[in-house]
Structure formats: C-alpha cells, structure tokens
Amino acid sequence: MSLYILPKERLPGFVDNLRAGFRVVGPVRTETGYAFADIRSADELVLEYPTTILPPKKYLLPQRETLFTFRTGNAEDGTQQIEVEPVFQDVQPTVIFGVHTCDMHGIVLYDKVFSQGYKDEHYCARREQTYIIGIECLRPCDDASFCKDMGTLTAPPVYDLHMTAVDDNYLIDTGTEKGERLLLANVEAHLATTDDIRRLSQTLSAKWPHFRHRLKMTKDQIPSLMAINYGSHIWDTLGERCLACGSCTNVCPTCFCFDVQDEMALNMEEGERTRIWDSCQLREFALVAGGHNFRGSKASRVRHRMMRKGKYIQQVHGITGCTGCGRCQRACLVDITIPGTLNALYDEMQIDLSSATGA
Ligand code: SF4
Ligand code: SF4
Prior knowledge:
By secondary structure, the chain is α+β, with helices and mostly antiparallel strands. The chain has helices at residues 11-21, 101-115, 121-128, 147-150, 177-186, 194-207, 222-228, 234-241, 247-250, 298-317, 327-331, 338-357, and strands at residues 3-7, 23-30, 33-38, 64-74, 80-86, 94-99, 130-135, 161-166, 169-174, 190-191, 258-264, 270-277.
C-alpha cells in the first residue's frame, strides 16, 4: 500500500466530496462530550478529539435493529403458515471518519465475532459497505486511557485509510485498494516523499512518552491472573459497589451481547424480530426458564465481565478483549475500573505470595 500527503486545508473538501456519495459519520462536539454522528458539513468533524461517549460500533451493530418481519395465517388447506421477510437496516455506503486506534482494535474483534463460524448476515452486509478512516492518537484521551498497556496504541490492519497529523499535513496510509481509490477519487493527494516519511517516523516516535502505563502486569499475564483469581474475595467487594446499571458494557467497543425479541402487531398476525444491545451486568441477563438465574449476584456478574475482558475473549478469538479505551471507567458511577481491578488482583497475589514465603 502507499503513503500520501494531504495538506490539512484540503480536508474539508475531501469530506464534502465524500458526502456526495456516502453517509459520512465521525466525531462531533456535543453538549455532553464528543460523539460519533452524521457529518452534515465538513466543519462539524473534529479530528483532534479526546474520546467519544460510544465507540463507532453503533454503525456496525445498531442499538436496535429489525432482523426480519413475519406474518402468520392459514393456507387454503387449513394448515398454519408463516412468511418471513429479512430486513437489512442501515445498509448503505458509509465512511466512518476519525477512528482511534483502540476503536479499530474493537472493530477487528467484531469482524471476527460476526463473520467467523456462524456468519451474521446483517453485520456483514453493513461491514462490506463501510470504509474505516483512522486517525493516529498522538496524545492519550485522558487519565482513564490505558491503551499503551493493552497494545492498542498502534493501528491494526483493519483500516482503509489511516491519517497522522504532521505539521500542516496529514500523512495518509492506504490500508486497502478500495481505500486508496476512495482517497484519490475525492481529493488531490500526492505520494509522500522520503522527507515526509522521515517526519512521520519522528512524529510516531515522539508520541510514546506521552502515554503512561497503568497496569502493574503485562497484557500477556492478564489471562493467567484472571484464572488464578476466579475465587478471589475482590469480586464480592466489587459486587457490593456495583449498581448493575449496564453503562460499562454499553459504552464498550468489545461488548457485543444482544437480546432478541419478537414483537407482535395488535392484529396478532404480523410482527417483527428485533435485536437490541444487552448487558451481562443486568440481573435479567442470566434469568432462564423456571426463574433460575445462573448469575444472580452482582459479584458473579462483575466477575464475568472482567473474565471476558481479561481472559475469555482472548482464549476464544486470540485477541484482547479490552482495548484500554477507558470508556467503562468514565461511565461507571462507582469507579469500578479495569486497571483498578487488575491491579487489586495483582496486589492480592503479591500479599499471598509474601505470606506463603514469610517475606
Ligand atoms: S472494558 Fe472498558 S477499557 Fe476495556 S475496551 Fe471495554 S470500555 Fe474500553
Ligand atoms: S457501570 Fe459500574 S455500576 Fe454500572 S454495571 Fe458497570 S461496573 Fe456496575
């Protein structure tokens, strides 16, 4: 793939040209923070944003979507029939502009989850029409970020275009051929020179000291830490604090659990099947037939979320279940955080070890 240089002054023209053929979404300023939203004019797009309330997953897995409609009735011979019509909502050529590297890692996970094994046609239909334009993070979003610990501070190969601000220009890496075509068809950009590449390299090297480590262990140690601490008393402590509100999972770029509901029309002959985001932190999530709840306590639900982030997803999909974006920390009213929990488990192990050795 190639590296292009685009003067920053040409960005508005690029965005406006894209809008002629695509739904363009990207980070905008709102009263409550930054959020991914439809870009109606290029000056709404804010590329130097700290983080957004929700990650861009909402464009790939909407909060609520109709999967199919159905109609029941009787055939001429009296047998009952049901007609089913698939529905593909929000499937349109879309450019997601300004995706941070951590959120790209979230999309890598989503692509695996929804396209491997049982293929989710609805997700894949939207994904095939989606272009990802990333923006390199040169500063941490805020103190809640721990992307450096989780190895998500560099872009994974999921982007079509990836931009890095260098002085008055963007250096744009083309990750796919369709991304390169998208760029060249919509703005005048030139191949980067050796000097541009040197300045890009300097910019990328200079960013690392601005990001700090928050974890006391390495990313690779986390799955074992979780396994050893399955029976820790820390889960009870966190369970007592947790409000079971589900905010942490809603804002998470790697949470993908959903509920499926059938809704009948008043005529009781037709209806639709919808799926909506769900949260393992809600009491009803594990409620099954007969009234049994296999994760009835908040302690067991907090543990389950932490286990997914630190161990289960890594085991099943081979990639991190937490991008270190920090959104769950910002959303949690009782300050239950991933670094706080992992560090507490780690400290607990040091205490156990020292009492066992008499140190
Ligand atoms: S668990 Fe928290 S920090 Fe990790 S990806 Fe989800 S929201 Fe971000
Ligand atoms: S946001 Fe905090 S209080 Fe709410 S469910 Fe998550 S951990 Fe519990």
